[in-house]
Specification:
Strand content: 5-15%
CATH superfamily of the largest domain: Type I PLP-dependent aspartate aminotransferase-like (Major domain)
Mean pLDDT: 96
CATH class of the largest domain: Alpha Beta
Number of helices: 16
CATH topology of the largest domain: Aspartate Aminotransferase, domain 2
Strand order of the largest sheet: 4-10-9-8-7-5-6
Structural class: alpha/beta
Helix content: 40-55%
Largest sheet: 7 strands, mixed
Order of helices and strands: HEEEHHHEHEHHEHEHEHEEHHHEEHEEHH
Number of strands: 14
Shape: globular
CATH architecture of the largest domain: 3-Layer(aba) Sandwich
Length: 429
């Protein structure tokens, strides 16, 4: 047992007796945090900082899997939640906040004419696909990116245990920025495709005309175009990637930063499609839970009132420029790169020589955690991050990149590791 993470590892042993994998989310489990060199349990967080159960302090660039946009414990959000808590959290009747937040989303998101709420991004994407199938009378779905845990999507990955093969046969993957691949699938499934669903951006920027072409193709084929903006919504711009890139889908799914970490998601879009939900079963006891709706109202109002997304982009650009320069300076450009949007950027590591990408990533994680930084490979900027936080992160890269270079050059990554290397969970992007 390591000294730095002794309390985490003791709590892991306890949790494993009552919780499968000792975590509620794969991305927070030992499948992603190498055992022996990682913090595993949080104690508290504030602003851009997180403290683990051992008392170690981190500048957190994971930002609760990008669900935190304003920063942990934002005072405006917490005050709104506290006020609502005094009145109640869930009722026998619907609450006015449901309408108020729906109206705010319609005001901000270009595609939104009507809105329904869920609790997780997976709720929203599954709801959007069900609506598309109901509206078109078709069954097949084309997918690009990650869209949650439910059967309709996860059946298309290697994490498909427990899902009927017949379900997986209805979901078809295509690669981002590849219009011919989409056209080929549509030709193969002529008249059978209900929806084309994708993250409008993740690692790569859309090529000029790519999203516009998808918009035209979906309309031509009578398929519903769905943008999964679970992460990009309220991060790339107040109206999400669709505002940034000027392409309006038929339906949009939102989550994560919609309520600065409180559990809330939404399906929104064209009125005629959304009215399918008067018949389509999409119903949650906690869909109208008011603490999350109060958090959303405060979050969205702050996004409109203050230069949140512009600040995220500026700060993230500083980080990306600084990291690109260091990748060159420290001689790791053969196997390291930075990609993505400034507000949600990716540090990418490829295998080299006898060293696998997962061995090198495990070394990177080990060393970044030890220096007080939390990330699984992305930089999810929040309004609470400062320029000093970015400078500190770049300083850590100045120390860690030479280690990666030397380990790769000498095929000696295992000698640097104080743990077993990670293995793939499943490939998304």
């Amino acid at each position: 047992m390591s000294t730095r993470y002794a309390a985490s590892e003791a709590l892991l042993a306890r949790a494993q007796r009552s919780i499968p994998l000792a975590a509620q989310t794969f991305s927070k489990s030992i499948t992603q945090y190498p055992l022996g060199v990682s913090p595993l349990f949080a104690k508290r967080a504030q602003g851009s900082r997180l403290w683990d159960v051992d008392g170690n302090e981190y500048i957190d660039f994971g930002s609760a899997l990008s669900s935190i946009t304003l920063g942990y414990g934002d005072p405006d959000v917490n005050a709104a939640v506290a006020r609502q808590l005094a009145d109640g959290t869930i009722f026998t009747l619907s609450h006015e906040l449901e309408t108020q937040v729906a109206e705010k989303i319609i005001e901000m998101v270009p595609s939104a004419e009507m809105v329904r709420f869920g609790k997780n991004g997976s709720d929203a994407t599954a709801g959007a696909v069900r609506v598309a199938r109901a509206a078109t009378g078709r069954d097949h779905v084309l997918v690009c990116g990650y869209h949650g845990w439910q059967d309709w999507y996860i059946a298309s990955t290697t994490r498909d245990k427990g899902i009927p093969a017949a379900t997986g046969a209805l979901t078809h993957k295509f690669q981002f920025n590849d219009i011919p691949a989409v056209e080929a699938l549509l030709a193969q499934l002529k008249g059978l495709v209900a929806a084309i669903i994708l993250e409008p951006m993740n690692v790569e920027f859309p090529k000029p005309g790519y999203l516009e072409s998808l918009r035209e193709i979906a309309s031509r084929e009578g398929a519903v175009l769905v943008f999964d903006e679970t992460i990009t919504g309220f991060r790339y711009a107040n109206g999400g990637a669709q505002e940034l890139f000027g392409v309006t889908p038929d339906l949009t799914t939102l989550g994560k930063g919609i309520a600065n970490g409180f559990p809330l998601s939404a399906v929104c879009g064209r009125r005629d499609l959304m009215r399918e939900m008067e018949e389509v079963f999409f119903s949650f006891t906690m869909g109208g839970e008011t603490m999350s709706l109060a958090a959303a109202m405060a979050t969205l109002a702050k996004l409109q009132r203050e230069p949140v997304t512009a600040t995220l982009a500026r700060r993230g650009e500083l980080l990306m420029q600084g990291l690109r320069a260091r990748i060159q300076t420290h001689g790791v450009s053969a196997f390291c790169r930075v990609a993505g949007h400034p507000t949600w950027s990716f540090f990418m590591i490829d295998g080299t020589g006898e060293s696998s990408a997962y061995e090198l990533k495990t070394l990177w994680l080990q060393e970044m955690f030890a220096r007080g930084f939390l990330s699984l490979g992305t930089h999810n900027i929040t309004y609470a991050h400062t320029d000093d936080d970015v400078d500190c992160l770049l300083g850590a890269y100045d120390e860690v990149l030479p280690l990666l270079r030397d380990a790769a050059a000498n095929n000696s990554v295992r000698q640097y590791l104080r743990c077993d290397p990670l293995v793939p969970l499943f490939k998304v992007r």
